[in-house]
Amino acid sequence: MTETVGGPTTDTGDSAAAKPSRGRGKTGAKRAPGLTVQRVFTTEGVHPYEEVEWERRDVVMTNWRDGTVNFEQRGVEFPRSWSVNATNIVTSKYFRGAVGSDTRESSLKQLVERVVGTYKRAGLEHGYFATDGDAEIFDHELTWMLIHQVFSFNSPVWFNVGTASPQQVSACFILSVDDTMESILNWYREEGLIFKGGSGAGLNLSRIRSSKELLSSGGTASGPVSFMRGADASAGTIKSGGATRRAAKMVVLDVDHPDIEEFVETKAKEEAKVRVLRDAGFDMDLGGSDITSVQYQNANNSVRVTDEFMRAVEGGTDFGLRARMTGEVIERVDARKLFRGIAEAAWNCADPGIQYDGTINDWHTTPESGRISASNPCSEYMHLDNSSCNLASLNLLKFLDSDDRFDAQTFAKAVELIITAMDISICFADFPTEPIADTTRRFRQLGIGYANLGALLMATGHAYDSEGGRALAGSITSLMTGAAYKRSAELAGVVGPYEGYARNAESHQRVIRKHAAENDRIRTFASSTPVQKLATEVWKQCQDIGQVNGWRNAQASVLAPTGTIGLMMDCDTTGIEPDLALVKFKKLVGGGSMQIVNQSVRRALDNLGYQAEQAEAIVEYVAEHGHVVDAPGMKPEHYEVFDCAMGDRTIAPMGHVRMMAAAQPFLSGAISKTVNMPERASVEDVERIYLEGWRLGLKALAIYRDNCKVGQPLSAGKGGDKKADAEPEKHVVVEQRPVRKRLPKKRPSETVSFTVGGAEGYLTAGSYPDDGLGEIFVKLGKQGSTLAGVMDAFSMSISVGLQYGIPLEFYVSKFSNLRFEPAGMTDDPDVRIATSVLDYLFRRLALDHLPYEKRAQLGIFSSDERSAQVENDYGTGEKLDMEEFRSSVPTTEERKETGVDPAPVEVGSSTELLELRLGKAADAPLCMTCGTKMRPAGSCYLCEGCGSTSGCS
């Protein structure tokens, strides 16, 4: 047999060739004797490790806010080409064994060998390879791609494969719940097990009777929303994988459920409660002590809408809500009014999202085995209930050749290698529940995807929101899924189709034909034509081989957020997202950090025809201003190529929707992406987005309007147990009247000038000669303005309270972390960022007037104290290798090429760097692990500092 890893050059005529000892598959085709793997990236006789320059590094990760040490491991081994960030994240997240023990992994080689070796052995054991030599080539090819950051498996693979722990390889799970108390309690249990393992789950609650229906006993049912409360509390208690982030979960309800209006309003009502409680002085940040009184905050909510409902919205007609047990219509509602309610709730608090049931099930490969009713928390995996999906993502920038053209042939071959490995993993994988294990083994759902699309488009001179950009994205996605299904058909000829294929053969073939037909509809441009042409050939081969063999996998592809693994691959952009901004934050090997113009900018300028001198001048301009508008020699018609998710020129919300629509027809699953909308967006804008998503054939869509939520995850400082929140005289038995201790006529004072988020002001603090702070005066705003008057009254109130004996630490605990505008960067090196003016003022007062021990309890330290903590924890350490340091710091010539400048000391991530440039706070949470500002990744948030995510990826 001559079955290779190639694309259309594969000799498929013998891919179903017989090996008598294997018998016949369920489709009647004879089984082939195993894959014959040919080399794509590697050289015979040369191990992949020998082609890489390796070096030893020290990984020391600290909390950016207070200097506490999060993780330390010295002397780890990585390729020299890997960034510090990728090294830190892989070492801290994926190396197994107790830190400091002999069993602790200390090299990327050990990690890769642990995972790839397991795949190779399982492939041999289960008959995937024709010979041991083919298995070794497979091993070398995967190894080469992993150490060169061409692709990555999802995080559970790195956590679990090849260890003594259960070898769970999936990050995405879908559960089910029926209308019985036993099933509902089992739902709580199964979710808890999945959350404990560090993954997320979703389910549809529509089988549960509504609160408008009767129980068999004659009483009224509680309804699904009431049971959501228990599940929400459970998720809030069980932190994913023992980490500090909350569990990730999705709750779906069908639009024809009688309780749909209550479901739609749940989180919007709770958000209103948050605002009232916050204004009353309660701590309502997601890490705050009072947030537990707010319900439904641990899940993403989505409404599953039907084509019938959407047509009723278009036509302005009524829509029937149906009883769960009988299916009869028990109430009719105005479809447009209900749709407006969904949009208003999303406008208020970003929930619920929309899932388009008609489109989802029209592209379903196994409808005879059950409908698709739910998704995972990030909405990219959609298949049968009680199932799971393991993911892997390719780094698209790695497939640009020397002329910056997309190498479609190599890409297709890489996809075939990776999908083979992903299918092998199901042979040995463990699962959290037996129903999930059974379904996954019978249908073998896979989710190959990609990252760095935004960087690829910019580097090749394509605007994200352009016909050419969408054509290239669609063609690449089509080729990826076509190559994956083609290999799946070839695997079916070797080890048999998935168990549920025979029953669903007609439907699966129909969906494959739909994919191929959509591929023919792509409007191509010069850059996308070769990719689309190869995709056409691959889809033809996929259909021909599948007609004979069937397919090994019920689904093949999704577009996931690629959060942590995106950092592992040193990707500039995650999933299908555009670039965050043109200037980003970068850590250096020798310590410290830099701000650097994204490499895609220079590549784009070269591809757009700018001369070297022009390109250098533009890059220098971008390094200084953060955008290309009015850059010297820059053509206005090229501005759109450099539009980003944030900054001075942002991509319009509908531009994101159109890009999703370009990729969706070529995916087995869906796309994890949130469409960000400006704060000024209206409810009607949300309605248009949701309606257009349906018309364009998306499977799911969610929006986020800037600043629509009050609570945001905040990092907790050292000892931040907020014991000082209790009033000091609460338990006094003998009632005493407070006595005011006035300041003397002449008292010492000091004045501090400050800037918070661009707002300037002055703080004057007057003290008793020997007994601490006694009064404050705050000058903010013009004399006679409302703001100045309010601040005068506030200062007087605080001063009188201090003189009546209220401790300063009480005020600090109450007013620090209070969020409102102006907020952002300050000019104070001890308080680099403030969530409000009051947050800054009371942190500054604490630093000036409270002893270290009390400030340590509140998590407030000066910059010198933070530095001293690090030095005390680590000592001065080994002498700095000056050669290594010099090699890590760009030279003057390199700075001219890349636009590198030292990063301001006030920032710890790309998002914070962008905030400093814009003079405006980004609506993103702080990482609970290391304290840096996170950045969007699909429908989640990702921390560039430590790799933590806010979702299931």
From TrEMBL:
Catalyzed reactions per annotation: a 2'-deoxyribonucleoside 5'-diphosphate + [thioredoxin]-disulfide + H2O = a ribonucleoside 5'-diphosphate + [thioredoxin]-dithiol
Pfam families given in the database record: Ribonuc_red_2_N, Ribonuc_red_lgC, TSCPD
Residue stretches making up the Ribonucleotide reductase class II vitamin B12-dependent N-terminal domain: 59-149
Domain of life: Bacteria
Chain coiled-coil ranges: none
Ranges where the TSCPD domain occurs: 744-847
Ranges where the Ribonucleotide reductase large subunit C-terminal domain occurs: 170-704
Biased composition (Polar residues): 1-13
UniProt key word Nucleotide-binding: yes
Region entry Disordered, spans: 1-34, 885-905
Keywords tagged on the record: Cobalamin, Cobalt, Disulfide bond, DNA synthesis, Nucleotide-binding, Oxidoreductase
GO biological process, one term: DNA biosynthetic process
EC number: 1.17.4.1
GO MF annotations in UniProt: cobalamin binding; cobalt ion binding; nucleotide binding; ribonucleoside-diphosphate reductase activity, thioredoxin disulfide as acceptor
Cofactor(s) required for function per UniProt: adenosylcob(III)alamin
Record's compositionally biased regions (Basic and acidic residues): 885-899
Cited SUPFAM superfamilies: PFL-like glycyl radical enzymes
Function: Catalyzes the reduction of ribonucleotides to deoxyribonucleotides. May function to provide a pool of deoxyribonucleotide precursors for DNA repair during oxygen limitation and/or for immediate growth after restoration of oxygen.
PANTHER family: RIBONUCLEOSIDE-DIPHOSPHATE REDUCTASE, VITAMIN B12-DEPENDENT RIBONUCLEOTIDE REDUCTASE
NCBIfam families the UniProt entry points to: NrdJ_Z, PRK06556.1
The family this protein is said to belong to: Belongs to the ribonucleoside diphosphate reductase class-2 family.
Protein name, entry field: Vitamin B12-dependent ribonucleotide reductase
